[in-house]
Amino acid sequence: MGKAATLLLVALLAGLGPVEAQIDPGKPETGRFGNPTVIAANMRGYIYGVVKRVEAGELVLDKTEFGDNQPFKLEAKTKFTRDGKPSQLADLKAGDKVWVQIKREKKTGEMIAKKVVVGLDPTGAPE
Predict the structure, then answer these.
(1) CA–CA gap between residue 67 and residue 69 (Å, rounded)
(2) Helix (H) or strand (E) holding 104
(3) By the 8 A CB rule, do 78 and 115 touch?
(4) What phi and psi values does residue 45 have, to the nearest 5 degrees?
(5) What residue segments make up the domains of the chain, in order of their start?
(6) 40-88 residue pLDDT tens
(7) 8 Å CB contact between 114 and 45
């Protein structure tokens, strides 16, 4: 290595300063939401939205990846969960932030809600 390269390397290393040990971040203060890495992986495949209105057989959401006024068809076997506990359609209200697991109807392309999650879903197990 030439003198210029050696001097450049020494100058670069001198500017780094002492290396500090990594500190364990500990338990998050917002424990309600759990570990964001695990939660994000568990909610993969769900669609996020804000409830605009709830009607018999249909849930309409705003702020989805598809835009506003996005309808989702509801079936008798659609499951509802609020903060990890079983819930029902009647418990949903405008303004609720929800995650919806869907399936598409093959013939029409309609989106059918299989599961609607409000708050934390501690099971973390998509169906």
Answers:
(1) 7
(2) strand 97-104
(3) yes
(4) 95, -10
(5) 47-122
(6) 666 677 888 999 999 889 999 998 888 888 999 999 999 999 988 999 9
(7) no
Report which residue type is found at 104.
R
- Contact in structure between 73 and 89 (CB atoms under 8 Å): no
Q: Quick one: DSSP state of residue 51?
A: E
Instruction: For residue 113, count other CB atoms closer than 10 A to its CB.
Output: 23
Alpha-carbon distance of 97 to 93, in angstroms, equals: 10
Under 8 Å between Cβ of 5 and 13: no
Task: Give the three-class secondary structure for 76.
Answer: strand
Q: Which pair of structure tokens corresponds to residue 29?
A: 């203060």
Best CATH choice for the domain 47-122 from the list 3.30.465.10, 3.30.930.10, 2.40.50.320, 3.30.420.10 = 2.40.50.320
State how far the alpha carbon of 106 is from the alpha carbons of 31, 69, 73, 111, 126, in Å: 40, 22, 14, 10, 21
